Amino acid sequence: MAEYYAKSQNSLSFEVTKEGRLIGKLSYKSWFKFNAIIEIGDSEFQVEPKGFWGTTIELKDHERVLLKFRMNWNGEIVIQTYFNEVKNGYLFKHRGIFKDSFVLTDQEGTELLVMKPHLKWTSMNYEYQIITTDAFETFPDKEIVLINTLHCANYYMSMMMAGTM
Question: How far apart, in Å, are the Cα atoms of 64 and each of 26, 46, 58, 67?
Fold first, then answer.
């Protein structure tokens, strides 16, 4: 089990840390688009919507797609990874109203991480506490998946806000 924190200095960028050490960054290009850059060490990955409606989001290493996600009809986000030519599926979902959190599960329904958002009222920016399981910590590409779940949480909240307007 490990504990990570994602903090936003402004509404367009997040830094993910573990024990005070920088793991990576998620930076959005603008408030109203889902395009983003994920930086982990010296590597940079592009996150961009695909298709006419932009409902599928792809994470790419140059032109190679490493990960895709889309929201299904009941508000869960279906994630597919393609690391090392191996396809895996995950589900990212919102849990609770009063105990507000997000959960990432594998195809068997096993919890891999829990993400708890905290709104900083003084700056109106979100921070997240992310608790991962021992199983998640063994993932070879866990940093990419971890920072992508942060993007999924932001995507979920913006889609739900759009649905209430």
Answer: 19, 10, 10, 9
Give tens-digit pLDDT for 81-117: 999 989 999 999 998 776 689 999 999 999 999 999 9
CB atoms within 10 A of CB 163: 8
Could you count the other beta carbons within 10 Å of the beta carbon of residue 8? 19
pTM: 0.90
Mapping DSSP onto H, E and C, the string for the chain reads: CEEEEEEEEECCEEEEEECCEEEEEEEECCCCCCCEEEEECCEEEEEEEECCCCCEEEEEECCEEEEEEEECCCCCEEEEECHHHCCEEEEEEEECCCCCEEEEEECCCCEEEEEEEEEECCCCEEEEEEEECHHHHCCCCHHHHHHHHHHHHHHHHHHHHHHHC
> Could you tell me how far CA 82 lies from the centroid of its own chain?
16
